[in-house]
Design the sequence.
């Protein structure tokens, strides 16, 4: 079923001529964007894009679809501006707390859409660890916070999810063995390990501990996912990273799925002041409509 996110993605791909960049702009993973485009084309019954090795073009019929999509999104923006004025939403400020891996991947597209629809509302990003985000929400220092794997029953708006994957040096023996079948956490426990945290309490070490395992050979600990991947490429060890945090260039790297798969899910949660804020509720409403 086609929704607003699909149409925004369609226009973003046409503008960027690249699915990866369009996915970043709309707050999706690359695999999620590719799947959404395939579903949309199947629903339409014809190809919108022509896929070359390093370039995405638009078909003749696709050009007409893109034009209609632009007009539709433009009219929607005009309607929302009118609605904002009727509700007095011509000003406001939202403090949104997040942790680094989400700030750089999911939030840019989400906030770009919101800023386009509500240009008078200021959104201020506060970045910290996932534990700090929870503390700021509890202390009512922010209106919104991005939380990971929210507890059942906690009010939230899901903004995305991705899978944990194993990154190995492409020429290593482990990569050759695991490339086809995937790998279990137990098989990783004794490997030389590059521990990346991404500023989050949930990382390779905590995933192991939750499964009743221990990492026996942590060679390096870094905060940044990309730094971990670079060290893996230098054959210093293996790493567990979120799929959305993988570098665009995977040269000298092999990405292997976990067996069984493990996912992390992100959601927006309100503080008491966020529940009382019309601007914050407008942002949440826009996110719900786009999903």
Sequence:
């Amino acid at each position: 079923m086609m929704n607003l996110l699909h149409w925004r993605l369609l226009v973003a791909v046409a503008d960027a001529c690249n699915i990866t960049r369009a996915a970043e702009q709309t707050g999706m993973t690359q695999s999620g964007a590719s799947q959404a485009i395939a579903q949309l084309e199947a629903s339409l019954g014809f190809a919108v894009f022509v896929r070359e090795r390093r370039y995405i073009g638009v078909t003749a019929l696709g050009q007409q679809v893109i034009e209609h999509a632009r007009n539709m999104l433009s009219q929607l923006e005009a309607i929302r501006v009118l609605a904002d004025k009727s509700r007095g939403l011509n000003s406001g400020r939202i403090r949104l707390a997040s942790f680094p891996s989400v700030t750089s991947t999911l939030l840019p597209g989400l906030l770009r859409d919101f800023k386009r629809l509500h240009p008078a509302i200021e959104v201020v990003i506060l970045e910290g660890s996932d534990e700090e985000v929870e503390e700021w929400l509890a202390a009512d220092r922010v209106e919104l916070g991005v939380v990971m794997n929210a507890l059942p029953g906690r009010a939230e708006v899901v903004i995305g999810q991705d899978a944990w994957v194993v990154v190995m040096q492409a020429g290593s023996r482990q990569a050759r063995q695991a490339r086809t079948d995937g790998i279990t956490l137990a098989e990783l426990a004794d490997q030389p390990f590059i521990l990346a945290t991404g500023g989050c309490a949930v990382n390779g070490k905590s995933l192991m501990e939750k499964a009743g395992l221990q990492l026996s050979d942590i060679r390096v600990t870094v905060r940044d996912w990309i730094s971990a991947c670079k060290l893996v490429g230098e054959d210093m060890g293996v790493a567990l990273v979120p799929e959305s945090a993988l570098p665009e260039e995977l040269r000298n790297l092999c990405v292997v799925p976990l067996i069984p798969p493990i996912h992390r899910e992100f959601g927006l949660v309100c503080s008491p002041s966020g529940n009382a804020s019309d601007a914050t509720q407008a942002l949440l409403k826009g996110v719900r409509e786009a999903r």
User: Anything to note?
Assistant: The first helix runs from residue 4 to 16. The chain has a mean pLDDT of 85. The first strand starts at residue 49 and ends at 51. DSSP finds 13 helices and eleven strands in the chain.
